[in-house]
Amino acid sequence: MTLVAIIMATLAAGIGSVWLAALLMRLGLGGRSNAVSPQHLLSLAAGALLATAFMHLLPEAFESQAGAHDLFATLLVGVVFFFLLDKAELWHHGHEHSHAAASAHQAHDHDHAQSHGHHDHSHGHHHRHAPRSGGWAVLTGDSVHCFGDGILIASAFVADIRLGVIAALSVLAHEVPHHMGDLVVLRQTSPNRRAALVKVSLAGAVTALGGVLGYFLVGQLQDFLPYFLAVASSSFIYVALADLIPQLQRRLTARETVLQIAWLIAGMVIVTLVSGAAHAH
Hints:
mainly alpha; 0% strand
């Protein structure tokens, strides 16, 4: 009975938070109105990811028995790992584009009259759809984070059913703001919104895996939870600083700059308030 409750609660928290984030973006923040531009969403996402890492995940990790030196080493290794993951992703896409360029060159040799237009089209296609980094880093970090959430929920359910329900609701609440950030990042890497929703939902489903393993191995896995949190933090910090913030570093008017900063702070405030409420419960 407890295991069934854990599975249902972790799926509701992991996947439900993703769908709730997508719904909120569709109703307001995700609309195409002039009031909310893509730059605003990028600012909100950067603030949410940074606040999730520095105000929620890392404090939880350092409240454990794990040593500060080991946690900082894990954080450093995580940042380097996601940097290398990004390099591998960019190399893969560059390899694909080189094959496309070679095919275009062969077409040019075959029919010179039509190749000029085709070459111009492929060149524009390359620039329009050049992939942005951060997608795999977000999904990996999100999966690790959700796995840790599953362990937390399972631990709460093992102690008391009511405590487990409260923990699941708290996880659902504090996951919504940073899942909005995840969706924004993935929509930057791919124009397919449905694919972005499916990918983040699959990462959220890892919460159930953490819950099931946590139910059977709660004692052993608790010792590794701080390191899971540090790895998840490294992914969010890397994505915010290496991918989102650079996109915000452009010359803007004074009004646009103020709005950009306001949305950045709003992302931080939302996550901080929700995390604080979750800790209070």
